[in-house]
Amino acid sequence: QVQLVESGGGLVQAGGSLRLSCAASGSIFSINHMGWYRQASGKQRELVAAITSGGSTNYADSVKGRFTISRDNAKNTVYLQMNSLKPEDTAVYYCNCNAVRINLGYASNYWGQGTQVTVSS
């Protein structure tokens, strides 16, 4: 199996910063894209940012210029640096990766357990 463990969530005032980390472990052969999604109370889960194995990135319009996604391929870890946080960024943030497991010939999506980010006004 593939496990994703997130860390770095918490409570911060508007305008502040947080850095989320997500480490993938298990029987991993390779990881394709990694990303962060979020789900606010009463809303659907949405993509925040994603990054390919080659480093190409994609951001939701609402976070462009404020959030930065990066990854350390050697550590199978993805990061999300969140600056200039706003109350509307409050949500549970989920890590996602598309990975190929050892001895399997196809990729699957895996999810972390989620970490709460709360931005107070």
Topology:
Blueprint: E1 2-7, E2 10-13, E3 18-26, E4 28-39, E5 46-51, E6 57-59, E7 67-72, E8 77-82, E9 91-101, E10 107-111, E11 115-120
Parallel strand pairs: 2-11
Antiparallel strand pairs: 1-3, 3-8, 4-5, 4-9, 5-6, 7-8, 9-10, 9-11
Mean pLDDT: 96
What is the 3D form? elongated
Number of strands: 11
Largest sheet: 7 strands, mixed
Q: Can you describe this structure?
A:
There is one protein chain. 32% of the residues are buried. A hairpin with a 4-residue loop joins strand 7 and strand 8. This protein has strands spanning 2-7, 10-13, 18-26, 28-39, 46-51, 57-59, 67-72, 77-82, 91-101, 107-111, 115-120. It is elongated and about 50 Å long. The chain is mostly beta strands. 0% of the residues lie in helices and 61% in strands. The protein is built from no helices and eleven strands. Strands 2, 4, 5, 6, 9, 10 and 11 form a seven-stranded mixed beta sheet that branches. The model has no long low-confidence stretch (mean pLDDT 96).
Give a brief rundown of this model.
The protein is 0% helix and 61% strand.
Question: Notable features of this structure?
Answer:
121 residues, mainly beta, seven-stranded mixed sheet, elongated
